[in-house]
Amino acid sequence: MSTELRDGFFALSNGRAPAEEVDRYRALVDATDTEAATTIDGLAASWHPTARFKAVRFVDAERIDAGVRDLFARPSENAPYLAAVFVDPREFSFRTFENILPLDHRFAGVPLELELAGRDEVAEGVQAFSLRLPDPARACLEQLDSLDLYVPPLNAGSRGGDRFIFHSALLAEALTSAVAEAMPQPALDGFSHVNPVFRCNRFEPGDADFHRHLDTPYYDASRRHLSRYTVLLYLTGGSADPALALEGGAAFETIEPLTCVIFDQRYAHEGAPYLDGRKVFLRTELVFTDPDVAHDPEIGALFSKACYLTGESVFAPELARHADAYYNRVAAAHWNGLTTGAGREPFVHKQFRGVHFVANGYDFWFAKGDETTLAECAALTLLDYFNCKLGDEAFRTLCDSEVIEADGTDWIPAFLGDRRGEPAVAPFDKSLLFPAPESPSSDGLPDCACMICSGSVAGPNFETSRNAKIIEHYTRAQDAAKAGIMPAPVLMLGEDVHLDPDMFVVEGNRIHVLGKEAPAPVNFAACQGGPRFPDAEDFITPAAEVGVAHFLVPPILFAETADTYHLKFDFFRNTWMAKHEQSTVTVPMIRPFDMDEIGYECMCECDCSCGCDEDECLCDDDCEECGCGCAEEDDEEGEPEEADEEGEPEEADEEPRRDRSTV
C-alpha cells in the first residue's frame, strides 16, 4: 500500500485523473499513518504521503539516509538526483516555508553566453529585452518546465498557477553579465549581481490570475545588499488582456518567447494566464549595494507578523489573506514608508499545557501570576515563533489555538486574566545530566579477558565505571556534550520543556537570550571491531538524547502591567534577521563490561573442586565463590573459541549491550 500511495501521488499529479479516482486516493492517504523515515532540514519526512505527511518537497537524494534512500521516488527523469519527500506542513517555520532546489547541475557544461538585445523602455523604470543565447542554453531553460517540480505556492489563495524555487549560481552569473551590458548606465549605479534564487512559475489557461501585488525586496544587511528591480524571463510566449500589467499604465498584451522584462520594484503589478497556451516564466531580481540603507523597526515588526501568520495559516487558512496584505504593506513601505492598515487585526489565542497567551508574530501577551516568570514567557515565545520540535511533535501542533480578529489590544489583559494557568516550562538543573565519574580502582585495561593471563585479569569484580582509562574517555564525552547543552536556554526532554533561567537575563525592558551561535550534533557510538578486549571509548554509550535549542536573536523587548507581560519579538530591529538552530545532543554514560561481547568460554582443566589446575586456580575454594562460572560449563563447551587468521577471536554474534534511552 505504501508503494501504491507513493506512485499514485505522481500518477495523479497531472490533473487529468477523474475526480472520483482522486477522491479515493485522498481517502486512502487520510486513512494512512506511519512513522517518519528520515529528517530533512529539521522536518520529519516520509517516502509516501500520509494523513500527517502531505506536503511534497524535492531534495538532493544524497541528503537522505542511505538505509532508506531507495524508498524515495525520483519523480523527474531529467533530474534523477532529486528525490521526493513528504513532510508535515504543521512543522513549518518561516525558515522552512520554501523548498529551494539546487539546479546548478542543469547548467554545468552548458554554454551560457547570454545577451539582452533590443531594449525597449516601455515606461520609466520598465525595460523590455529579447534574450539571445546558444541553442543548448535555450533548450536547458525550456526543459525547466518538463522537470515537473511544481508545487502549489504558499499564497495559493491570492494567485493561480504553480511554481518551484531553485538556486543556480551559473545562470545568475550569466544573467549578471548580460544585464551589465544591456541596462542603461544610470540604472546600474551600485549594481552587484542577479539574485541566484529563481522562481519558476507556470500558469495554464483558465488558472486564476496572479493578483495585484508588490514584490518584497531582497535584503542582506551583512553585505548591505538590497534588490531594486524585478526580472521576469518568459520561457513561453502568448497573449492575454493583459498578460502583464504594471502600475502607471505599462502593460504587455502579447509576450514573445524569451522576452525579459525588468522593472522597478516600486511598481505594483498583476499577471494573467495566456489565453492560448501554457505560461512559464522565471522571476528573480537585480541586487544592488547600498551603504546608506535605513531600517524602520515598524516595518520589521509587520514583516514578522506576516511570516508568523503564514505559518499559522496551515492551521487557520483564513489567516493567509492577512499575511498577504501584510507582505504588500511591507513591500510598499520599503519605498514609501509604512501606511496604516485597514480593518480589524488578527490575533491567535493559544493554550500550551495550561498556559494561555495571545500572539500576532511580533507581540506576545501573557497573564501575570505568582509563578509566571519572564524567562518562561520568553521561552514559550521562542518555541512558538520558531515552531520548535518537542520530541516528535512541532510546538504549534501541541497548542490549542483560535483566531480572534479585533480592533486594538485593550481587550487582551481581561481576556487572559480569566484564563490563568500553571507554569508549563519548568527550570531544570542541567548538571543533573552529567553525574561525576566514580573514583578509579584500576588503571589500564587488560590485554585480554581470558582471566588467566599473567597479571592482566578482568575478573568478575572488574568495573568499567571505576577504570581510569574509561573514566578519561567518559570525561571527554561529557565535555563534548556539555558544549552543546550547557549554553542552551531551552531543553526538550522528550515532549517536556525545560529552561535554564540563567540564560534569560533581564536588563531594563529587555530580555537577553544567551547561548552559542551554532551547536553541532554530538554523537557517541561503540567502535566496530578492535582488539580482544574492547577499547576504553567503547564503554561510552548514549544515556539520553536531549533536544537543545540555541537562539541567536536580538533582545526581546517587554512591557509590564499589573496583569500582563507584553513581549515584543523584534527580529528585524537594527537591520538584521534572527537565526535559530535546533539539534539533539547525546548524553554519555559508562556501560558495564559483558563477557558475552568477546565470546569468552571457560578453558579450565582442573583437579580442584572448581575443575581448575590447583597451581593456576584463580579461586580460593570453588567456582561458585570466584564467580567464573566454569562449574556450570560442560566439558564439551570448555574448548577455546576458534581464532581467525590473524590470531584474533571472531566477533561475537550478539552486539554489545546498550542502555539507550531517548529523553
Summarize the structure in words:
With 663 residues, the chain is of the alpha+beta class. The chain contains eleven helices and 33 strands. Helix 6 packs antiparallel against helix 7 (319-336). The relative contact order is 0.08.
**Share of residues in helices:** 10-25%
**Number of DSSP strand runs:** 33
First and last CA, distance: 33 Å
Give the overall shape, derived from the CA principal axes: globular
Number of helices, counting only DSSP H or I runs of 4 residues or more: 11
Query: Mind telling me the C-alpha Rg?
Result: 32 Å
**What portion of the residues fall into strands of 2 or more residues?**
25-35%
Unreliable parts: 517-532, 573-580, 600-663
Q: Could you say which structural class the secondary elements and strand pairing correspond to?
A: alpha+beta
Mean pLDDT: 79
Sketch the major β-sheet. 10 strands, mixed
